[in-house]
Amino acid sequence: MILFIVLAKACVSDYINGGDEYKISELEQMISENTVVSASLSNEYTESTVASVIKLYKFDYRFDLNGQSYTGKITLNAVPNTNQLNIYYLSDDPSIIAADPYESIAREKEKGSSISELLIGIVWGVLAIILLISLIATIKSTKTPKDPTSETKTAHKSIKTSTKKKAAAPVPEITPEEERLRALEKERIRKEKEDPSRFMPR
């Protein structure tokens, strides 16, 4: 995310500020003076990809000039066939070099005049925002949930319900005479049921 932010800032700054006029003058001086030297490249290099399209190759270089050795790193658009490469250098300061000053001048002059730099910066900025949103979402999802045992528990109050019961109706008292009459009636009914002649016509 930080890398994308840095790339976005660099691209937008290049579009706003334009090319480096001082660097352009140095490159033009290399061309006008034709200060070229043969440099030895390292056998190993670092490959990087810009905007998922352009591949760059970074080598260590070394050359001797006026009895003094100069070393550093140089970035090329392609891997050379040999480890010897003619490079331009600035006569005032041989540590400032360029593999192709013509291409470097064109690239510097393109800054600020081409919208491609701005579009690439916007792409880097959008990617940085997406990563930032993803990071925030990840942090939120990994937060430790609250311990349910730590929560204050409220005891449920027992609810008591009271129901009113109606009193049973008083049973009327039966006199001995009524009891005797009821027994006689029950006996009469029983005898009628047992008498077979009750089904005969009278």
What would a concise description of this structure say?
With 202 residues, the protein is α+β, with helices and mostly antiparallel strands. It is 42% helix and 24% strand. The model has no long low-confidence stretch (mean pLDDT 78).
Radius of gyration: 53 Å
Low-confidence stretches: none
Mean pLDDT: 78
Sheet/helix structural class: alpha+beta
Number of helical stretches of at least 4 residues: 5
- Strand count: 5
Cα shape: rod-shaped
Spatial strand order of the main sheet: 3-2-1-4-5
Tell me roughly what share of residues is in helical segments.
40-55%
- What order do the SSEs take from the amino end to the carboxyl end, as H and E? HHEEEEEHHH
Assess the beta-strand content as a share of residues: 15-25%
First and last CA, distance = 120 Å
Largest sheet: number of strands, sense, barrel closure: 5 strands, antiparallel
How would you describe what is shown here?
The protein has 202 residues and is α+β, with helices and mostly antiparallel strands. The longest helix has 27 residues, at 115-141. The model has no long low-confidence stretch (mean pLDDT 78). It has a five-stranded antiparallel sheet with strand order 3-2-1-4-5, with helices on one face. It has helices at 2-17, 21-33, 101-110, 115-141, 176-194; strands at residues 36-50, 54-65, 68-76, 84-90, 93-98. The protein contains five helices and five strands.
